[in-house]
Amino acid sequence: MSKNVVVSATMNYTPGPYSVVARQDKTFYIVADSPRGQIELATVHREAEYQAVLPANENAALFAAAPDMLEALKLSAEVFRAKGWDKGLDAVGMTIIEAAIAKAEGR
What is the pLDDT of the chain when averaged over all its residues? Predict the structure, then answer.
């Protein structure tokens, strides 16, 4: 298995929204809009023999939703703090949210 490597302590990624583009070769591309058109960010290959266990279209959709989910988690963390849900027994949810944000930011 490969080891996770943190490239930068500062979060720097192509801003969303991302979308999924299916090509005729049954490959899915994660793309983002830019002033010059769409930028391909990632490729999700569909291998016929693995399709049942590695659903490429579902994986691509999950990747494309990542920027939106990160923003939703950050907003949720703010709400948890404002409501005081980041302490005591309620802190379990906050711990999960913070771990997911840290993972998305490469920390």
Answer: 80
